[in-house]
């Protein structure tokens, strides 16, 4: 069985600029989703083609947010791409607005069957489902997870995908290696080709991400645990992971790069006013992403 350091999912060639369809929401304030994916992937020399799943005034941790669901416009939006010969090398989805958007993503997979499929199954964290996520949307997201070439759940999202109970133990505390490997293997058995299980804590001052593929061994990447949480770190982690994959790095190298970048961005974020609310600040670190090339 191969080592995760040998699993290269995208071969970057010369000056070619890969195109990534980024299927996420757009938030006016509070850095997350497309506001993270566009700059991070662009810094890795990708042409990011946004497919906005919703327009938000701010991320949903702020009170009084406004949301516009874009589901109705997406079929025409994507058909127009077909008319102008757009080609896509990777489809990267995250926060979705409605279960029908999962069918729309499957349509993108059909149109671009050669594209790498990256599913960040944004639904929940620390045992709680996000406020806009209905049970139908969670089920649709769980189904989509089976089609992923790379799936990046946290523990709560993994439990939802596997149909296992979300309990206190799903808050990210004290999952040992054997349990983490059981969860990752169960997600692979459900259909995902590679899994990165994120954000495992054991109260030892470290935060761990576990990587495995159908044909590759279990790999652990860990970082210092910082004693605060920020919105958008999940999006930064997944965007940085894909940035490294599209730069031709192995999945294990990409998971290590993403953990390091997210950790460093959290430290920069803590120096900004109102940092706990406004979301992760990574702008000063984009040079590290360009350094992947
Ligand atoms: N407190 C933290 N200290 C250090 N790294 C963190 C911390 N929180 C998140 N990260 C990094 O960011 C990744 C994504 O975490 P998180 O934002 O919790 O994802 P999600 O929102 O998808 O649950 C983690 O797996 C870890 O690598
Ligand atoms: C509108 C919106 N998009 C995306 C996210 C995902 O953020 P994170 O990267 O913290 O999972 C959130 C979380 O609050 C959100 O409210």
UniProtKB/TrEMBL annotation:
Species: Slackia equolifaciens
Signal peptide bounds: none
GO molecular function: ATP binding; hydroxymethylpyrimidine kinase activity; phosphomethylpyrimidine kinase activity; pyridoxal kinase activity
EC number, UniProt record: 2.7.1.35
Domain Pyridoxamine kinase/Phosphomethylpyrimidine kinase: residue ranges: 86-267
InterPro entries according to UniProt: PM/HMP-P_kinase-1 (IPR013749), PyrdxlKinase (IPR004625), Ribokinase-like (IPR029056)
GO annotation terms (biological process): pyridoxal 5'-phosphate salvage; thiamine biosynthetic process
Keywords: ATP-binding, Kinase, Nucleotide-binding, Thiamine biosynthesis, Transferase
Annotated protein name in UniProt: pyridoxal kinase
Catalytic EC class: transferase
Classification lineage: Bacteria, Bacillati, Actinomycetota, Coriobacteriia, Eggerthellales
GO cellular component, one term: cytosol
